[in-house]
Amino acid sequence: MRWTSPSRNAQPLALAGVILLSAFLLSGAAPEKHLSVYSVAANYSLPLVQREGRDYVGLLEVLEPLGKVNARSDGARWRLRYYREEADFQNGKSRARVQGRDMEFPGKFLLENDRGLVPVSALSVLLPKILGGPVTLHEDSARLFIGSIATHFTASLASDNPPRLVFNFTAPVNPMIAAEAGSLRMTFSREPVVAPASPTLTFGSKAIPSASYNESSGLAVVTVNTTVPVIATFSNAGRTITVAPPASAAAAPSPPSAPNAAPPSPGAQTTATPATSVPAPAPAVAPGPTQQIWRRYFAVVDASHGGDDRGETLTPALFEKDVTVALARSLRQELESRGMTTLVLRDSDANLSVDQRAVFTNADHAAIYIALHVASAGHGVRVYTALIPSGEDDRGPFRSWPTAQHAALPLSQIAATAVASEFQKRQIPVRTLAAPLRPLNNVTGAAIAVEVAPQGASLAQLTAPDYQQLVTSAVATAISSVHDQLGAAQ
Amino acid sequence: MIPRHFVIALVVLLIAALGMSLYALHMRNSVAATPVAPVDTRPLAPPVSGPREPVTLYVANDEDGSLRPHAAQIPLPSGRQQRAEELLQALLTIYLDKTSPHVLGGGSEVRSVFLVDPGVAVIDVNGAFADTHRSGVLVEELTVASLIHTISANTPGILRVKILVDGKERDTLAGHADLSDFYDVTAVNQLTTQLAP
Asked: Which residues form the domain of A104?
């Protein structure tokens, strides 16, 4: 038994060695990669796994925060159901059957312990079919945008003394801000900020010569290059960030850090001033009596029908769903040119259920929802508000789905009256009516539907850009006239 | 070596199977060639008997998108439910006329009307009614309002109305008018005011 003694002595040493080796290996391991997903319903981050040299993500995990989804595996097959849409995958195959149609996607589907994994690059192909809406994937930076969700920004230098660099965003933002020697960095982890027209912006100022945009690892970063200490301040409910030297920079070189300001990096020079920030209002999940609403878009424009639902067949080659998309795009342009941020719910020939349309609108707390319809019958335009069906009463904080519009109906009627008035001014025949038209009754904010018919007998007028622009500019002008009432309502 | 009687039995069975297949094919072709009598759509129930009574039907008009009262005298049975059915049958007779101001597709029928206490009416239309209906918010709304207002204005006590198609719930009439919920008669009465000429 003498031979056991050295072994016993060596055991603690071996254990310590293993621990040290593990710590060394872990410290040198690459950080776990993540996919950032931005949608109207939720913004979230998912871990990526490496398989066959590609980044993979669990498809069920991607869809779970977006709506009702379930999946089950049957041998090598994996079936996914998202609301009414069904998708069928097979382990090791790059072909899936989505909504009864076969489709190819890059890479292979993998089934691991009943978990369905798809390559990240396949999401831009699969998700539009499953979700019925546009999806934009920034594959290199692992950022996925579901719907027209992107937050755009502009940067302009005010030539005051000292100069101020003003960033205007189309939605409230609350980035992590860090100041280092010669730069101020704003890191957007939760906001779907996208690149400006040029990733590098130059301003011709000695104090703030340039700024740059880049994105990687699920983050978007705006770096402001400076030659003087600067601070960042928030205004306009988080939509505007102003970067400028502090008023009393010389007297107060180190203002206190804001709660969300990152500490300076170890390499930062002490002459740089840590940026201060006023946090933007936190996103509100549900409106409360004194809660401030977080709203990404002022208006939600809905091109009705789409996909298998063609709407009215206006001519053998012209369907209502196609004309509504053209009208929706035109209306978005008209609304945005009047300063109202606008989301078009359906910007392609995609299936989108009325429930999904209402969910997107309610989740965003949009000030107004405008559904667009086209008809061959009658003349001019009809503006509809909801005909509230007979439904259950609200229970506490929970609203009855069929009658969710009830509280906002007076506001909807204000908007409908304004729209009708604008059409009258333009001598277009118009009527305002209530209508049993979903999802008007499911929307919790102001909601109207506009049904456009030709002024004369020719259906060709419905596709004429002049007529479409006449209609959409009238709607946009009317909504603009009641902007304050709609905006203040929630 | 397979016994001879097995071989004979197998051959007999194969011949029998082949013969039965040929006979089945012959029978199938015979049935396909037999002319099928058209579906008899004549009513099986006897004509409604009862005194003719004045009623007001609310008739949609596509020309100006209105709902107009239309005075009529129709024989009405004594039963409340049968009266409601007769009202809607009379309304459909107008809509199925080619000169109607709001034409419905051929074969459209109201299958039955059920009156359920307290104050619920269920109108069951056939598949052709919905399948052949023109699509559009206003044109569908006119049909729905016409049915509901006609039945509720002539049958006291109805508070809510549900429309079924072939006995089943359907999302919309023809892509627009919602059929998934119960209609509130008070709300439809207000709509009728908006739809007045």
From this structure: 34-146
